[in-house]
Amino acid sequence: xxxxxxxxxxxxxxxxxxxxxxxxxxxxxxxxxxxxxxxxxxxxxxxxxxxxxxxxxxxxxxxxxxxxxxxxxxxxxxxxxxxxxxxxxxxxxxxxxxxxxxxxxxxxxxxxxxxxxxxxxxxxxxxxxxxxxxxxxxxxxxxxxxxxxxxxxxxxxxxxxxxxxxxxxxxxxxxxxxxxxxxxxxxxxxxxxxxxxxxxxxxxxxxxxxxxxxxxxxxxxxxxxxxxxxxxxxxxxxxxxxxxxxxxxxxxxxxxxxxxxxxxxxxxxxxxxxxxxxxxxxxxxxxxxxxxxxxxxxxxxxxxxxxxxxxxxxxxxxxxxxxxxxxxxxxxxxxxxxxxxxxxxxxxxxxxxxxxxxxxxxxxxxxxxxxxxxxxxxxxxxxxxxxxxxxxxxxxxxxxxxxxxxxxxxxxxxxxxxxxxxxxxxxxxxxxxxxxxxxxxxxxxxxxxxxxxxxxxxxxxxxxxxxxxxxxxxxxxxxxxxxxxxxxxxxxxxxxxxxxxxxxxxxxxxxxxxxxxxxxx
Length: 521
What we know:
It is a single chain. By secondary structure, the chain is of the alpha/beta class. The protein folds into two domains: 4-183, Glutaconate Coenzyme A-transferase, CATH 3.40.1080.10; 276-519, Glutaconate Coenzyme A-transferase (3-Layer(aba) Sandwich), CATH 3.40.1080. The strands form eight sheets. The chain has an eight-stranded parallel sheet with strand order 1-14-12-9-2-3-4-5, with helices on both faces. An eight-stranded mixed sheet has the order 16-15-19-22-29-30-31-32.
């Protein structure tokens, strides 16, 4: 039986009102051609209508790899549930993604779940469980008491409920059917046996396919290569063809955003090559200071944003090198790439020069099991109650990503980011900083716009947490923040205290200076 067809043929059977699920991680492993065909079908015919889309992770970069933006059309998309959203400004047009427009204009039911829940939920769908149950997310934006993960006013249905088992409060995510799954692999034969040899991430594609089949649904697999059946070893096949209904070949699909075909995302390091430079400035200062918190032989997980600069700075400083203690530093991300160097920007998630790769659901077993003892994460807001926000602020609504699971389960936390944002301009001279223009928006606020993780609650259960900025370092305690370091050249009152909407509960006296070497280009 030959299952190979065009993308247009593969999506032709999708019907009004169905649930369509697809998987990608920014630009990695995105079945872009198939999603584009579905969006184009709606533009041409007005069908199918009123679909629910389920994306375990933000799929596509909304620029060169459009991903979920292909289907972000009123009438086509009725509801979207996603583990994260993509908010970039297209450098060519200056516009944000179409999906962001739908959300901000309240033209779609938009729900945001932590990626851990969005992936683990698929396992419950696949085994026909009533739903996914978790402690993670209590007291955050997905808690029904704090919004239930609803990002638009159109959201009327409660997709997350609070339940009690043996007197304990828990979050419950009921399951529903997935009608169509769209996944991506590297190679397929005409029967549909899939291998992933050119993909630097696996994410939740296999779980998504099994969930759809358990519901009696269809699975569309987009691949780069068509091979003869029997050419590959059985242990190279990660998903048997019996679970695949349609195969779409796209021989030109890119590995990831601005990455065509780069084997360095698939092979362990002999030497580090083609790593991005981090320009000298506040981000590098923050990464240098945060790098001092990384310990040898402690599984360390890095989040999207400023935190992802830390491993690159450690390479630049010579702390990490294939010939020098490289095996002593254990780095990973929420998407299952182990070893090598965590990348930043749109290449985040897939490590360069990795040693090993886990699928997304297994990686969240690692995270939720507390095996990632150290976590470095970015922050957008930190409030007086000890809540940190990265999920929704201003006009941006990226969701939590893996942040909530990671923060909840790590033993040591470091939150990184600039003190203010919106036009911040800092000069450096002789190991000191000088603020030429202050940012318009302080990140230390009285009340966060969204609660992605309650740091104060984590402290009470034994976590340690630092907040590292370009001008100050704070230790989080159950009572509030203690200022422990200040940058050379910074004025305590003008540059720190006056830029906070709440006061630290303590300031070390004498107050140590951050090391001057951090501020030297």
